[in-house]
Design brief:
Length: 480
C-alpha cells in the first residue's frame, strides 16, 4: 500500500513537472529563444521551432480567409476577381517558395557553422534576387492586367471593373516575395517567433483595413475591390517594414551587416541553382491540382464543388504539418552546418513521428465525421456527400504522408532540392494524374472517388521513395 501511494505521488509530481516544462517551452517558443538548436535536446529544439512555425502557417491561412470574407459582400464578380488573381499570383508563390527553400538551406547551414556574416550575405543575395524577379513579373502584370483577366476567361464586367485588383497586387508582388524570403531567413536562423510575429502584424493590419477601404468609413471613401487590394498591400507592406527593421537592428540570431549589402555573384548563383529545384517543386504541385480539377470536372459541377471544398479543408489542416516540416528543414541545415549529420538525421525522424501523430488524429476525425466539415462551407447535400467521401478517402493516407512531407523538406533543408523535384515529377505527373484519369474513366462504380484514391496512392509512393533515399544518406554530403 505504501509503495502504491509513493508511486502515485511520483507520477503526479512527474506529470506536474512535465506540464510545467512543456508550458515554459511553448511560451519561450512564441516569445523567442536564444537556444542553440545544434546542441539543445532534440525534443526541445523541435518544440521550440515547430510551435511558432505552425502558428505562422495558420496566420497564412487566416490572411486568405479574411480577404475572401470581406470581398464576398461585394458579389460574385468580386469573388471571381480574387480567385482569378490568386491563380495569376501562382507564379509569384512558386518562385517565392523556391527561393525560400534555397534561402533556408543556405542561411541555416551558415548559422550552424557559426558564420553569421556569411548568413547575412546569403540573406542579402536572396532579397536582391527576389526583388529583381518581382520587377520582371510586376511591370508586365500592371500593364497587361486586363489582358491577363481576359486570357483567364473573365467576363466583361470583371475585366472593366475588377482589373484594378490584379493591377495593384501584381504590381506590388515584391511585397509578397519579400515576406516569403525574409521570413525564411528568420526561420532558418532559428528565429521562428519573428516570422510568426511578422504574419500576425500583416494579418492584423489587413483585417482592420479591409472593411475600412472596401466599404468606407468617415473620410475614407468606399473603394470596393480596389480597397481590398490596397488594404492587403498596406498590411503586407507594414509587415515587410518590420522585417527590415528587425534585420538591420540585429537583436536576433541574424542581422544584415553593412558590408554584406552588395552583389556577391557566387553566392547569388548558388542560391539560384538551389532555388530552381524548389520552384519546379511548387509548379509541379500546383499544376497537378489543376489537372485533377480537369479530370473531376467530367462528373459535373456537384463533384467539382465537393472536390474544391474538400481540398481547401485538407490544405487548411495540412498547414500545421507544413510548419512542423519547416522545423525539420531548419534543424537539418543547422546541424549539417555544425558537422552533426547523425543529429540532423535523428531530428528528421523525430519530427516525422510527431507529424504522424498530429495527422493521425486529424485522420481519425475525418474518418468519423467528414460531413461536419463540409457543412461549414455549404448546405447542398449532394456536394456535402461527394466532398465528405473525398475527405474520408484522402485522410486514410494522412499518417503516411505526414512522414513523406517531412522527408521532402529535409532534403530541401540540406540544399538538395533536386531529389524531391524528381520524386514529385514521378509521383504526381507520372503516377497520380494518369492513375486518376484511368480510375475515374474506366471504373464507373467509383467515379470521382478514383481521383481521391489516386492522390493517396501517389503520396504513399512518394513517402516510400523519400524514406528510401533519405536512408541512403547522400543528402548528408550536400554542399551549400
Amino acid at each position: 500500500m505504501l509503495f502504491k501511494n509513493s508511486l502515485s505521488s511520483h507520477i503526479k509530481s512527474f506529470n506536474k513537472e512535465s506540464i510545467k516544462i512543456l508550458w515554459k517551452n511553448i511560451r519561450e517558443s512564441i516569445s523567442g529563444t536564444d537556444k542553440d538548436f545544434t546542441k539543445e535536446k532534440l525534443s526541445t529544439a523541435i518544440l521550440l521551432l515547430s510551435v511558432p512555425m505552425v502558428l505562422e502557417m495558420l496566420m497564412e491561412s487566416i490572411f486568405a480567409v479574411a480577404d475572401i470574407f470581406f470581398v464576398s459582400k461585394l458579389g460574385a464578380d468580386a469573388i471571381a476577381t480574387v480567385g482569378i488573381t490568386e491563380s495569376l499570383l501562382t507564379i509569384v508563390y512558386a518562385i517565392g517558395m523556391g527561393l525560400s527553400m534555397a534561402t533556408t538551406a543556405m542561411v541555416s547551414r551558415r548559422i550552424g557553422e557559426k558564420k553569421p556574416y556569411r548568413a547575412s550575405v546569403a540573406a542579402v543575395q536572396a532579397i536582391i534576387v527576389a526583388s529583381a524577379v518581382s520587377l520582371i513579373i510586376g511591370i508586365p502584370g500592371m500593364l497587361f492586367a486586363k489582358d491577363l483577366l481576359r486570357l483567364m476567361g473573365a467576363n466583361a464586367d470583371i475585366i472593366n471593373e475588377g482589373s484594378v485588383y490584379p493591377t495593384i497586387l501584381l504590381g506590388s508582388n515584391i511585397i509578397i516575395m519579400l515576406l516569403f524570403i525574409i521570413n525564411a531567413v528568420f526561420r532558418s536562423s532559428g528565429d521562428a517567433a519573428i516570422s510568426m510575429r511578422v504574419l500576425l502584424i500583416a494579418n492584423g493590419a489587413n483585417i482592420l483595413l479591409d472593411p475600412l477601404f472596401i466599404f468606407g468609413l468617415g473620410p475614407i471613401p468606399a473603394m470596393g475591390i480596389k480597397g481590398a487590394a490596397i488594404a492587403t498591400t498596406i498590411g503586407r507592406s507594414i509587415a515587410v517594414i518590420y522585417q527590415f527593421y528587425v534585420l538591420f537592428k540585429g537583436n536576433g540570431r541574424i542581422k544584415i551587416y553593412k558590408k554584406a549589402v552588395q552583389l556577391n555573384v557566387k553566392v547569388m548563383l548558388d542560391l539560384i541553382k538551389i532555388s530552381f529545384g524548389g520552384i519546379v517543386q511548387s509548379i509541379i504541385a500546383h499544376s497537378s491540382w489543376l489537372f485533377m480539377i480537369r479530370i473531376i470536372a467530367i462528373f459535373g459541377s456537384t463533384a467539382l464543388a465537393g472536390y474544391t471544398i474538400a481540398i481547401r479543408i485538407i490544405i487548411f489542416v495540412l498547414l500545421p504539418s507544413w510548419g512542423i516540416s519547416n522545423a525539420a528543414a531548419t534543424l537539418v541545415g543547422q546541424n549539417l552546418g555544425a558537422n552533426k549529420p547523425e543529429r540532423a538525421e535523428k531530428a528528421v525522424w523525430a519530427t516525422g513521428y510527431l507529424n504522424m501523430v498530429l495527422l493521425g488524429v486529424v485522420s481519425i476525425v475525418f474518418l468519423i465525421n467528414p460531413h461536419f466539415f463540409m457543412r461549414i462551407f455549404i448546405d447542398n447535400q449532394e456536394v456535402v456527400n461527394t466532398g465528405a467521401q473525398g475527405l474520408r478517402i484522402i485522410s486514410i493516407g494522412f499518417i503516411f504522408y505526414a512522414m513523406g512531407m517531412v522527408m521532402v523538406q529535409a532534403f530541401n533543408g540540406a540544399g538538395d532540392t533536386r531529389t524531391p523535384t524528381i520524386i514529385n515529377i514521378f509521383c504526381f505527373w507520372i503516377i497520380e494524374i494518369p492513375l486518376a484519369y484511368f480510375l475515374a474513366n474506366h471504373f464507373k462504380e467509383i467515379n470521382e472517388s478514383g481521383v481521391y484514391i489516386a492522390i493517396i496512392v501517389a503520396e504513399s509512393i512518394m513517402t516510400v521513395i523519400a524514406m528510401w533515399l533519405f536512408k541512403k544518406g547522400k543528402w548528408k554530403l550536400q554542399k551549400v
